[in-house]
Amino acid sequence: MNAKRRIPLSLCCLLTVLSLANANAQVPFDKGSDNGMDLGTVKLVLDKPIWLISSNTPLSVKQEARLDPSEQSLAQKLRPALDKKEYKTALALLEAHSSDKKSAALWQVTGQVNMAMSRWKQAESAFLQAIKVQPGLARSHRSLAALYIKQSTYDKAQQHIRSALALGQQDAQLFGQLAYINLQNSSPWSAINGYQQALLLEPDSRQWQQGLMFALLEAKHFQPAQALVEELLVKRPKDKALWLHRSQISMELGQLDKALSSLEVALRLGDTTAENLLLSAQLHLKQGSVEQSVKRLTQALKSSNVSFEQVASSIEWLAHYGYLTQANKVIKGVSTRGMSARDKGQFYGVKGKIAAQMHSSDKALGYYLKAIKFSPDNGELLLALAEHYRTKSEFGRAELYYLRAEVSADVRVQALVGHAQLAIDQALYSQAITYLNKALQQSPERRDLARNIKVLERLVSQNG
Question: Would 365 be classed as within a structural domain?
Answer without folding.
Answer: yes
